[in-house]
Design goal:
This protein has 388 residues and is mainly alpha-helical. It contains 15 helices and five strands.
Amino acid sequence: MDLETDDAVNSQIVVPTADAGPALPDLAPATAARIAESVASARAAGTRRTYASAWRAFTTWCKREGHTALPAHPVTVAAYLIACADTVTEAGQRAYAPATLAHRLAAIAHHHRQTGHPAPTGDDLVRQTMSGIRRDYATTDDRPRTPRAPLLTADVLAIVDKARADCRGWADEVVERRDSALLLLGFAGAFRRSELVALTCGDVALHRLDGLHIRLRKSKTDQEGRGTIRALPFTHSHTSCPPCAWMRWAQVVAAHDAGGRPSVIRLLRNAEPFDAHVCRGTRPRTVPVSPLLRAIRRNGHLSTTALSGAGVHHAIRRRAAHAGYDPDLVQQLGGHSLRAGFVTQAFRNGASAHAIMRQTGHTTPAMLEVYAREHAPLLGNAVTNLGL
């Protein structure tokens, strides 16, 4: 059996050989296939893809070095970790962060368990090797980690205002309405970019008191799809109001889905200037199952497919560059800048970790502390009380 892809590993049910216990029952092929599909679905599609990629990297290295990949000896895994840790880029920097190595260990353990073999990653030799690599990285201050810079409230508003001021025609306004919705919804909702691009028109409801109720059907911390609601409130200013930004973009989506490009052109050419709240108006008739945030062609024509995660990343960078942000800062921005900005701004404004977690969906405050240390290091810090 080819063990280099997840599909091959999960194509059949594999059980370890045992001297005792119930005998393996005879199952119809269709039943066995359905069980295998359910086992495969126990992990997110993204996790399965990255595990498959990590497993291919390990098996390729084993083949090149003449080692057995399955079952792998703990010494083989330790040697692989050392080889990865010693890999450098053309610039002479470490190619892999400790987190990447830990992920590769998880993939190796996963493939061993799936095929009925004990995972070599639990051996003391492997654990101590990984611990030594982390210590070595820390000692040499060589951790290839590039956290995204946060966009705070003032940043988001400045970028949105510039985008609106730069519109020179209906095609520009189509992109502006989408990008403004992306920025304001992404920031106020503390969404991951994967969550933003997964939203459908039916996931958004306009509540007469709360503002927007956005149903998050699934997330990184909710792989079983229990779902949750994130509320994005009305604001005093129409320029910063997430419900207004959603309404303006939803109007474009509804016009496109009803009549295509000509309908969008008519909508925008006859639209009133955006100088007051529009969020109390009638909800546009969108198709519930259609993607909310769409890819847009250069001529202003909307795609029927959802905007990609890379598209979110590029839109944020492009808008920040157009708003005059320093090129070095622009390179530090990305899809996570909105979520990181929400946490950072909330901490700076005095919100508690519990209140922040209500919106972000974090299950523990530990990750929030990382944002606080990196982006708001003076909050709650005794250095501000030294009287200097």
